[in-house]
Each structure stands twice: as structure tokens, then as C-alpha cells.
């Protein structure tokens, strides 16, 4: 099992507001590097997109712990099975947020996708911070 963690960001919004925003997968489009993403499709509980020169990624809502944890899993059209955990920690007027991916990736594929996925998850964490800093 490969574990990929994003950097943690302090987001200038309440834990509840950030949780509600992230619980609707339609909102994930705002968190992705749109210049590197195509074929976006989403609903409240599912999203999929193709990363430039790479694979199609599908995310499906799995479960949550109100206001603190959101668990997404890969859809059938993803190139490998994974679970993405979005961890939210209440900091009073702000929320500390980070992403943790647990993926079943063979050694060959791991060499190709680990760094791009780390960069993607860092980008998503940074976009969460920027989205609510206005």
C-alpha cells in the first residue's frame, strides 16, 4: 500500500463550512489545476477528470465523520484502487486541512504516479486555502 500525504494548510473558514464545501464533489473542479485537467464530470457524490498526459481519475463519496473527515474512494474507471481521506482539524476561526491517499499501486506504476499525485494533492490543499482567504 502506497501512502501519499499532502502538505497541511490552514484554511480561513470554520471546520463546518469547509466540510460542507468539500462534501459536494461538484466543488472539486475549483480545487484542481484546470490547465492540466480535461473531461470534467461531477455530481454531489462523484467526480471524474482526466489529468493531462496521464490517467482518468474517478472519485466517489464513501463516508464521512461530520465536520472532521471525508473519505472518498476510486471509481471503477480509475487506473488503480485508492482511498482519499480529507482530514479537517478545528482551529477556532480557521481549519487545518490535509489529504492522505492510500493506494494499491504496483512498483512500476508507483514510480510514474507518486510524485504527480503528491503535487496534485498539495495543489488541492493550497487551493482550499486560497478559496477561503478572500
Task: Give an overview of the whole structure.
The model has no long low-confidence stretch (mean pLDDT 94). The protein is built from two helices and eight strands. The protein is globular and about 45 Å long. Strands 1, 2, 3, 4, 5, 6, 7 and 8 form an eight-stranded antiparallel beta sheet that branches. It has one domain: Alpha-D-Glucose-1,6-Bisphosphate, Chain A, domain 4 (2-Layer Sandwich), CATH 3.30.530. It is α+β, with helices and mostly antiparallel strands and 134 residues long.
Percent helix: 25-40%
The CATH architecture classification is: 2-Layer Sandwich
CATH class category? Alpha Beta
What separation lies between the terminal Cα atoms? Answer: 38 Å
What tags apply to this protein structure?
single chain; alpha+beta; Alpha-D-Glucose-1,6-Bisphosphate, Chain A, domain 4; eight-stranded antiparallel beta sheet; 2 helices
Structure summary:
The protein is of the alpha+beta class and 134 residues long. The chain has helices spanning 15-23, 107-131, and strands spanning 2-5, 9-11, 37-42, 46-51, 56-65, 69-74, 82-90, 95-103.
Set down the secondary structure blueprint.
Layout: E1 2-5, E2 9-11, H1 15-23, E3 37-42, E4 46-51, E5 56-65, E6 69-74, E7 82-90, E8 95-103, H2 107-131
Antiparallel strand pairs: 1-8, 2-8, 3-4, 4-5, 5-6, 6-7, 7-8
Amino acid at each position: 500500500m502506497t501512502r501519499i500525504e499532502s502538505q497541511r494548510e490552514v484554511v480561513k473558514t470554520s471546520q463546518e463550512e469547509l466540510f460542507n464545501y468539500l462534501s459536494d464533489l461538484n466543488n472539486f473542479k475549483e480545487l484542481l489545476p484546470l490547465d492540466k485537467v480535461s473531461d470534467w464530470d461531477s455530481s454531489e457524490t462523484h467526480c471524474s477528470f482526466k489529468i493531462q498526459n496521464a490517467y482518468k481519475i474517478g472519485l466517489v463519496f464513501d463516508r464521512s465523520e461530520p465536520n472532521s473527515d471525508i473519505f472518498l474512494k476510486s471509481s471503477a474507471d480509475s487506473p488503480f484502487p485508492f482511498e482519499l481521506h480529507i482530514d479537517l482539524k478545528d482551529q477556532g476561526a480557521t481549519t487545518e486541512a490535509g489529504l492522505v491517499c492510500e493506494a494499491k499501486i504496483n512498483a512500476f506504476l508507483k514510480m510514474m504516479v507518486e510524485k504527480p499525485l503528491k503535487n496534485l494533492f498539495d495543489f488541492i490543499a493550497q487551493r482550499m486555502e486560497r478559496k477561503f482567504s478572500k
